Amino acid sequence: MIHVTAVTGAFRWRIFDFGKVDAEVAAARGGYAEALARYRRTVLRAAEDVEDAFTSVVELERRTAKLEARSNLSSIRGIFRSRLSPPGRSR
């Protein structure tokens, strides 16, 4: 019986302490809102990092293709020059 009275007494005290309960609920909601804002910022930064990485990959692929085209053109020019050169002369 003493145990039940102690719990009941604590329960009654908590019920009539509305200001403290409201403040704790508000603090919990504030903490949740801050955690949610941090999470959203983290996800947004991660999405930006992924977008930046994709942009870098596309740019590198474009540059690689351009360099390969130049290299192929240089090779082709070399072949034609060597075939067009008079015998015994190379450029």
Structure description:
The protein is 89% helix and 0% strand. The chain is an all-alpha fold and 91 residues long. The chain has one domain. The longest helix has 67 residues, at 18-84. The chain starts with a helix and ends in a 7-residue tail after the last helix.
Can you give me a brief rundown of this structure?
The chain is mainly α and 91 residues long.
Query: What value does the Rg take, in angstroms?
Result: 37 Å
What is the subunit organization of this protein? Answer: single chain
Overall geometric form: rod-shaped
- The amount of beta strand, in percent, is under 5%
Number of helices: 2
Major pleated sheet: none
Mean of the pLDDT scores?
Answer: 82
Instruction: Tell me the number of structural domains.
Output: 1
Which structural class fits the helix and strand makeup? mainly alpha
Cα end-to-end separation: 109 Å
User: What is the helix/strand order?
Assistant: HH
- Work out the number of β strands: 0
Q: How much helix is in the residues? A: over 70%
What features would you highlight for this structure?
91 residues; mainly alpha; 2 helices; 89% helix; rod-shaped
Topology of helices and strands:
Layout: H1 2-15, H2 18-84
